[in-house]
Amino acid sequence: MAMSPRSMLGALALSVATVVTASTIARADMEAREAEALGLHQLCDKGDRRACVKFGIILGQNEQRHADWRKRHAEWWWWER
User: Fold this and answer.
1) pLDDT at position 41, please?
2) φ, ψ of residue 3 in degrees (nearest 5)
3) Element (H, E) at 67
4) What is the pTM (predicted TM-score) of this model?
């Protein structure tokens, strides 16, 4: 059975809305994780060992995010200079 143009348009609109919503949520999550990492990095610089451990865990959790952060925050990898 063929779909009518109207139902095809509705399905397309739903698909686009789903993709936009998912990408918005993913971006917000990434920004929240980066903000958390920034806070932990600052605490680590002040000598908080727990913050250093948590910061290291966050850095190692996602390779693509890790690569993006490497570009934006080179100072976080000071030991590799």
Assistant:
1) 92
2) -80, 145
3) helix 63-72
4) 0.52
State how far the Cα of 73 lies from the Cα of 45, in Å rounded to an integer: 14
Per-residue pLDDT of the chain (81 residues; tens, 9 = 90+): 566 666 666 666 656 556 556 567 667 777 888 899 899 999 999 999 999 999 888 877 777 777 887 888 888 777 776
Q: What residue has token string 């686009």?
A: 16
Task: For tokens 């060992």, name the residue.
Answer: 49
Amino acid of residue 58: I
Q: Read out DSSP for 1-53?
A: -PPPHHHHHHHHHHHHHHHHHHHHHHHHHHHHHHHHHHHHHHHHHTT-HHHHH
Instruction: Choose among 37, 67, 69: nearest CA to 54.
Output: 37
